[in-house]
Write a structure and sequence with these properties.
By secondary structure, this protein is α/β, with parallel strands linked by helices. The protein has 13 helices and 21 strands.
Length: about 400
């Protein structure tokens, strides 16, 4: 709900057109779009700059998203340094099946770890385009969201004093556990949730990938995935019980399971290396509808979470940011409010498309390990169809690359 309390002891409010809460890919992209158009804005972030530039996160960026960044002058380092991926490989039944999606669609993926993208975006926003940003803020509160003008207040980490910023609009880009979505009254929002009932052990290894592409191991003992993050770092996933303790997965067990679940005829064994990250992700999704509440516009994980099953989260955040940034610029520089009026439905069309694909892909990954012979059989039929039916292959490639949703 709107927090309309007064701010005793606070100085007179500062003013800007847009306050952006959260310095992730969505918030920084919105900020860069606004600064490029000469719109004054302020980004508030609870973590330090060093933390957000090193926080391990996703790394797969779809081609339409890269082109969107490029059009806005935000992809120079990405285009120079990112790996271009044109195929993935499924492994099931002890065999390898390479899926060359570029041959089917003419499109490809880019692999560029999120910390590198965030580093690029924050440098461009703060150091090049002169955008205002406050790191390490505490107790962020939103006020007057349904009024003629909103405000955002926060505790300054240097002085401990509550600062107040008056603004026309607030962009809520502070993720699944942020304050912006939490401040909306429950009766104003519908949150649709889905729990897959499985966990993934997420691993980051200081070791080269064993193949030149993403690997999906569909094994009766559970899914395994390999996602290259560079020549010497590899992201791995292992299906595990939800809520499992990472301590249950010592080094020897991790590598034994990766070798088994990704094993196939003629395949190289995963190269072992130190595990620099090990955490369990419980697979679940949610979608917040609508994504607009008065002068608050949610974007990225603050509005919707898609499990990393299909590597769609960062791409959805960028899609939201492109639409929101462009719509705010149109409203604040030209008086055109049509983009803001259509923001929520335009975002949600792609959100639901990606959620549906993630759910479908989950069955492909996990069906053989469900303990149900019928599900295992239908899952193997789906997998075989990808490599025997050009129509099925083309449909999968479009959804996997995000081209079916359009932009």
């Amino acid at each position: 709900m709107d927090q309309r309390a007064s701010h005793p002891g606070s100085p007179a409010p500062q003013c800007c057109s847009v306050v952006i809460v959260g310095a992730g890919p969505a918030g920084l992209t919105v900020g860069n779009i606004l600064r490029a158009a000469g719109v004054d804005c302020l980004v508030l972030e609870t973590e330090t700059r060093e933390f957000i530039e090193r926080r391990p996160r996703a790394g797969v960026i779809e081609e339409w998203a890269v082109r969107g960044l490029e059009r806005r002058g935000l992809a120079r380092n990405l285009l120079e340094r990112a790996e271009l991926h044109t195929a993935c490989e499924f492994r099931f039944g002890g065999e390898r099946y390479r899926f060359s999606y570029r041959e089917l669609t003419g499109s490809h993926h880019w692999v560029y770890p999120q910390p590198l993208l965030v580093t690029d975006l924050v440098r461009e926003y703060a150091d090049v385009r002169g955008g205002g940003i406050r790191f390490g803020v505490r107790d962020v509160r939103l006020h007057g969201l349904d009024g003629d003008r909103a405000s955002v207040s926060y505790l300054c980490p240097q002085t401990g004093r509550r600062e107040v910023v008056a603004c026309d609009y607030v962009a809520g880009c502070d993720g699944a556990r942020g304050v912006t979505r939490a401040c909306v009254a429950p009766e104003r929002v519908r949150v649709a949730r889905h729990d897959y009932g499985i966990g993934w052990l997420a691993l980051l290894a200081e070791a080269p990938p064993s193949a030149d592409c993403v690997l999906f191991g569909c094994h009766p003992d559970g899914f395994a995935g390999q996602m290259p993050r560079g020549p010497e770092v590899t992201r791995y996933y292992l299906q595990c019980p939800p809520g499992d303790d990472p301590a249950n997965w010592p080094h020897e067990r991790v590598w034994a399971e990766l070798r088994r679940r990704l094993g196939a005829a003629g395949a190289a064994r995963p190269a072992e290396g130190p595990l620099i990250e090990k955490r369990v992700l419980d697979m679940h999704d949610y979608v917040t509808e609508p994504m607009v509440f008065g002068r608050l516009f949610l974007a990225g994980d603050a509005a919707h979470l898609v499990a990393p099953i299909a590597a769609k989260g960062m791409n959805l955040a960028l899609h939201d940011a492109f639409l929101l940034g462009d719509a705010l610029v149109a409203r604040l520089t030209e008086g055109d409010g049509s983009g803001l009026a259509g923001y929520s439905p335009a975002c949600l069309r792609r959100v639901w498309d990606y959620q549906e694909f993630s759910q479908w892909l989950s069955e492909l990954y996990h069906g053989t390990a469900a303990g149900d012979p019928f599900r295992a059989g239908t899952t193997l039929a789906r997998l075989r169809r990808l490599f025997t039916s050009p129509t099925a292959a083309a449909a999968f490639a479009e959804q996997y690359l995000g081209t079916a949703a359009g932009y």
